[in-house]
Amino acid sequence: MDTGLAVETKVKIMQCLLKSCQKCGGDLVQDNDEFRCWQCGSYYYPKMDLPELPLDTPAPQASGDPDDLPGAPRRRRHCSRWAVRDINNMLVAKDRSEQRWWVRNDQIIKYLGEGKPVREISTLVGRSERQIRVVREQLNDMRAANEIGQLMMSA
């Protein structure tokens, strides 16, 4: 029996990298243009390829620096450990992680601000007392760092 209706099936291919997480050894799953670990939630960003240089590049010119002369002893130059694009990706990842932390702990922070005890907050939110204490300590650390920063700015 042919009804004349075409059935479309959409298949989305999901790219996985098994046991590739550098933090926990878990499986990475592609999430838009980045990879995310299923087990620990770490994000990994793709490295951008450098454009290819043309083959007919001119030979480098020697400068007046005596270290550039042939046969001169080679001095080790200071090189940065992180490329600029890697640092930018790390800053974006840190910012995204901090935003998720604030959203995830919004109710706990509100209850701590109201002065409720840890045991009561844990029953209201459904998380362990230890998790509530960790959030409280992180808030205290942030307040202390903020106060030190303000003192340094005013001095």
Task: Explain the overall architecture.
By secondary structure, this protein is an alpha+beta fold. It has a domain at 105-155. Helix content is 41%, strand content 8%. It contains 4 helices and 4 strands. It has a 4-stranded antiparallel beta sheet with strand order 1-2-3-4, with no helix packed on it. A hairpin with a 2-residue loop joins strand 2 (28-31) and strand 3. The model has no long low-confidence stretch (mean pLDDT 76).
Provide a compact summary of the structure.
The chain has helices at 84-104, 106-113, 118-125, 129-154; strands spanning 16-17, 28-31, 34-37, 43-44. It has 155 residues and is an alpha+beta fold.
Strand residue content:
5-15%
Mean pLDDT: 76
Number of strands: 4
Neighbour order of strands in the largest sheet: 1-2-3-4
List segments where confidence is low: pLDDT < 50 over at least 5 consecutive residues.
Answer: none
Shape: flat
Helices and strands, in order, run as EEEEHHHH
Gyration radius from CA atoms, angstroms = 27 Å
Distance between the termini: 85 Å
Q: What proportion of the residues is helical, as a percent range? A: 40-55%
Category from helices, strands and their pairing: alpha+beta
DSSP helical segment count: 4
Give the biggest sheet: 4 strands, antiparallel
